[in-house]
């Protein structure tokens, strides 16, 4: 209830102060906040004239709206006015030099507040007075299009885009649109009101329009949030089994993220390929390799732990593709070539583990949790097929005796500690693994096998005598003899025989 007369009497007779007198509840709002929230224009004008602090910020930032009985979080008078669309109150506060950039407790600024409530006159006011730029308005509009739109939501987005285009034409503000690309079905952003009107009744096309606007603005803002709806768009395409289009979207996103030096993760591609396997959708070798090449991009060198796990997943998926009998020899050779290039990189994560360590480690199964119902039927560790593929086409480059940093375990130690899989153990040994390599605790393959049943397949691989070079290396390591003048390859050989053993 607006009792201007009572407030005027209290202030002019020094019973109240426009700034120091506040509500007695925890909000501690001033009279100006209340007047702006309820749109009492004459009272707002009077309070400003009498020195009210137009930039007072309520720390609790909550005002109870008696109409719908819930708390609204607006911190200043201008946000309170914006929340209920009180145009004249906003104009008066602006003319009194209020801070128009203040944000709600939720992080929304004045533009987002009025957009969510479709207060068109206030939006025009913000544009006309250069409080916001046309790009800021367009970006804010597109943030409302987080996923495919309902018809009601589409109408609001469409009207906002129309308002922006109309404003651009009136002010003769041009925009540099991106070139048509497959990600957006080669659609191009509307340049005229007639072009925009032609898509008015197409919800999907309006959503694409919002994505096109976002991407136009992306080089200016360089904010990862600009591209977030593409995640949802890709998910929608995958759900509808438009897998090829989904790949286009996510590959495009990968490079956009790389542009702004953001982390690029491959787990979505892993999920998509597993999803395709689940519904018996043929995976194109060309598209598989297109994703495989992303591994070698600079952004993938930053998050080594996550990257190496995803690389293993993609290698396992490669084995599933190779199991398909109708694949041509040329297709198979292209995968073998990719495996060779991959192994040449000799990726190592922050724990000193190689892809071979992960391939034989049963604890990796707990990592396949992203949409696990689709991943887990196809991704299992230890994985003999993936190991065989890596050893066959990458053995020349792989460091087969590499030890992790924490326990000094080679892949052979890991498989013996966690599994009785004799096929994998034989694969490792037949590929030239050093059979008497010790870990940090001085344990070799045979120490570990003594703790388990010793399969005959392993017993026959046990040498009758220990090579002289191994005996010499063991003595040098355990006696801590000076190896400073020995070349690196020989030093590494000695390290395999107990340097870490205490």
Tally of DSSP β-strands: 2
Distance between the termini: 82 Å
Shape estimate:
elongated
Radius of gyration: 33 Å
Q: How much helix is in the residues?
A: 40-55%
Low-confidence stretches: 66-71
Helices and strands, in order, run as HHHEEHHHHHHHHHHHHHHHHHHHHHHH
Structural class: mainly alpha
Largest sheet: 2 strands, antiparallel
- The proportion of residues in beta strands is under 5%
> What average pLDDT do the residues reach?
84
Total of helices: 26
Biggest β-sheet: strands ordered side by side in the sheet? 1-2
Would you summarize the structure shown here?
With 502 residues, this protein is mostly helical. The chain has helices spanning 4-12, 31-38, 41-49, 77-83, 87-95, 110-116, 120-128, 134-143, 151-171, 193-197, 203-221, 228-239, 243-259, 267-278, 285-292, 304-322, 329-345, 355-359, 372-375, 384-394, 411-418, 422-430, 445-450, 456-459, 468-478, 488-495, and strands spanning 63-65, 70-72.
